[in-house]
Amino acid sequence: MTSARPLREIRSVRGAAARRSGRRAEALAAAWLMLKGYRILGFRLATRAGEIDILAQRGRVLAVVEVKSRTSLEAALEAVSFEQRMRLRRAGALAAASRVGLKGVAVRLDLLALSPGRPPRHVPDAWPDDGRAWA
User: Fold this and answer.
1) Range(s) of the domain holding residue 122
2) DSSP label at residue 10
């Protein structure tokens, strides 16, 4: 009699696949942003407030880019909760304050949505302030 794979092993395999898929999505998103004239300052940046998928700059704008791979733009926009957006805003403010040469830049929260069979969709200022100021 054969036993089923332990749940822990199944979760580990799924988690590894999700991480690989996420890294591919972030690499594609970064390439798309560079084609649009952005300079990539970092990937998966850890701050005290949270992790930033991509930190990019174009001119005097610092974009905190959240990358989501979903079946539609609407699903990607909805996949980022209010709490996550607040963490990303705080992380972006910390990143801007801690980097030389970024004083006085406008920090913005962008979404880069990826859907199968479609070109990437960059949404600058995807959640304009959520009715609150940057922390």
Assistant:
1) 27-131
2) H
Cα–Cα distance measured from residue 35 to residue 32, given in angstroms and rounded to the nearest whole number: 5
**Maximal CA-CA distance, the chain:** 67
pTM surpassing 0.85?
A: no
Does residue 73 fall inside a structural domain?
yes
Structure-token pair, residue 39: 């300079």
- In one-letter notation, the amino acid at residue 92 is G
Q: Are 84 and 130 in contact (CB under 8 A)?
A: no
Q: Spell out, as residue ranges, where the chain has pLDDT lower than 50.
A: 1-2, 134-135
CATH of the domain at 81: 3.40.1350.10
33 in any annotated domain:
yes
- For the chain, how many structural domains are there in total? 1
Asked whether the beta carbons of 84 and 92 are under 8 A apart, the reply is no
CA atoms within 13 A on the CB side of 65: 35
